[in-house]
Amino acid sequence: AHRDFKSKNVLLKSNLTACIADFGLALRFEAGKSPGDTHGQVGTRRYMAPEVLEGAINFQRDAFLRIDMYAVGLVLWELASRCKAADGPLDEYMLPFEEEVGQHPSLEDMQEVVVHKKLRPILRECWLKHTGLVALCETIEECWDHEAEARLSAGCVEERVVQMQRQTSVTAPEEIVTVVTMVTNVDYPPKESSL
């Protein structure tokens, strides 16, 4: 389990392959062995699953994996928020929950928004109408479900992404690089701390 999955910890290679980074809080689970320090409330507050924010963690392998999948949902939302749907605007980059809690939320801020109000970042109407984004939106919602047991597994998300890739008619790779470069080649001020 990674335990600090967030967009800042996903790096892109020159061929646009994503790589997960920063395994400083990761736990390795091996049969018959203790995973080590399983302190529950670790990671970046903004990406903490409801059960982590509540301090109600089951210290089993599957529970930690579900916590990571909640964060995957938020990172996928960040990706969707940088896609230009045919009839929708491309808004300024925002962190998940930035509108509700600002750039440096307290644990209490996140508990109020995620646990008590059960809010999630907004899935824009134009995304839900866009054939290329609707399946991604469904996946996002199933990753960040309030109930940990209802969240998708990493394997299921991978299958869906592969299926989305197959269904999307992709033109030349050079065009993709150009589009990604146009969106990512902007100097954004740092918006995130490890808080």
UniProtKB/TrEMBL annotation:
One of its GO terms (molecular function) is metal ion binding. It is found in: Cell membrane; Membrane. Pfam families: Pkinase. Its EC number is 2.7.11.30. Keywords: ATP-binding, Cell membrane, Disulfide bond, Glycoprotein, Kinase, Magnesium, Manganese, Membrane, Metal-binding, Nucleotide-binding, Receptor, Serine/threonine-protein kinase, Signal, Transferase, Transmembrane, Transmembrane helix. It catalyses: L-threonyl-[receptor-protein] + ATP = O-phospho-L-threonyl-[receptor-protein] + ADP + H(+); L-seryl-[receptor-protein] + ATP = O-phospho-L-seryl-[receptor-protein] + ADP + H(+). This is Serine/threonine-protein kinase receptor. It comes from Cottoperca gobio (Frogmouth). The lineage of its organism: Eukaryota, Metazoa, Chordata, Craniata, Vertebrata.
